[in-house]
From TrEMBL:
PROSITE patterns: ADH_SHORT
Organism: Paracoccus aurantius
EC number: 1.1.1.30
Protein name listed in UniProt: 3-hydroxybutyrate dehydrogenase
UniProt cross-references to InterPro entries, sorted A to Z: 3-OHbutyrate_DH, NAD(P)-bd_dom_sf, Sc_DH/Rdtase_CS, SDR, SDR_fam
Length: 256
């Protein structure tokens, strides 16, 4: 049902962004994949998704830490019927030791990029007469954890931006919502495991079960396919009146 629509997914050469891109392609959407790198694998990935799903797919390099590149990505995409603001990074440290450049990078990539892409995408959606903005927030957009100051601040911020975008498009055939994943085993999470093993003096298995999934009552990681399925739902007619909200896909984390 998304044939003829173009989805731009930021940070989509791995993890949740790629999972969302694949599910949107299965529903017929043409794709613009993105990350800050520009190597053969990135372009080959777009070609593979195009041939796997019978859609058009391109890879466009843009660094989401830079406002002008965020804006240029949407310009270069041409159409942008579905905008998925997904690019994100993490850094874990107490506030007093938190590197200033990490704070700035997390706020830029996880929050400000969505402001820049949305600013260029909304006029295109209004012109096309339909649009969806989907912001990938986090359970950390709704609750906090120690040592994740920049990430929690950015994710709470993007939920605020989601609400404002929804209000500014409320009378247009455009919606804006956030997806709030709990723990999904992607590279961003994988990278945290060695540090957590050191901090807690635990094995990998114990860090996963007792530290990470301790917050996730289901005791299971959520999957990238589930994030993609949620994005497809938000693009469906069933979700025409769903706007300005956050959908948790977190195994019960935020119910605690
Ligand atoms: P990931 O590391 O696999 O993916 C992050 C993506 O962002 C990659 O494609 C990476 O190349 C891209 N990226 C990073 N910096 C970029 C930059 N400067 N410019 C452009 N692209 C950039 O991680 P993921 O788990 O798939 O994370 C995707 C989103 O989901 C993030 O916003 C993250 O905060 C959010 N999230 C993840 C989890 C989880 O448990 N994995 C939970 C909640 C929210």
């Amino acid at each position: 049902f998304l044939t003829g629509k173009t989805a731009v997914v930021t940070g989509s050469n791995s993890g949740i962004g790629l999972g969302i891109a694949i599910e949107l392609a299965k529903a017929g959407a043409d794709l613009v994949l993105n990350s800050f790198t520009d190597n053969d694998d990135d372009h080959a990935l777009a070609e593979k998704l195009a041939s796997d799903h019978g859609v058009e797919a391109r890879y466009i390099q843009a660094d989401m830490s830079k406002g002008d590149e965020c804006r240029a990505l949407i310009e270069k995409a041409g159409r942008c019927d579905i905008l998925v603001n997904n690019a994100g990074i993490q850094h874990v440290a107490p506030i007093e030791d938190f590197p200033v450049e990490k704070w700035d990078a997390i706020i830029a990539i996880n929050l400000s990029s969505a402001f820049h892409t949305t600013a260029i995408a909304l006029p295109k959606m209004r012109e096309a007469g339909w649009g969806r903005v989907i912001n990938v927030a986090s359970a950390h957009g709704l609750t906090a954890s120690p040592f994740k100051s920049a990430y929690v601040a950015a994710k709470h911020g993007i939920i605020g931006l989601t609400k404002v975008t929804a209000l500014e498009t409320a009378t247009d055939p455009i919606t804006c919502n956030a997806i709030c994943p709990g723990y999904v085993l992607t590279p961003i999470v994988e990278k945290q495991i060695p540090d957590q093993m050191k901090t807690h003096d635990m094995s990998r298995e114990d860090v996963i079960a007792k530290v990470m999934l301790q917050r996730q009552p289901s005791g299971q990681f959520a999957t990238v396919e589930q994030m993609g399925g949620t994005a497809v739902y938000l693009c469906s007619a069933a979700a025409d009146q769903v706007t300005g909200t956050s959908i948790s896909v977190d195994g019960g984390w935020t119910a605690l």
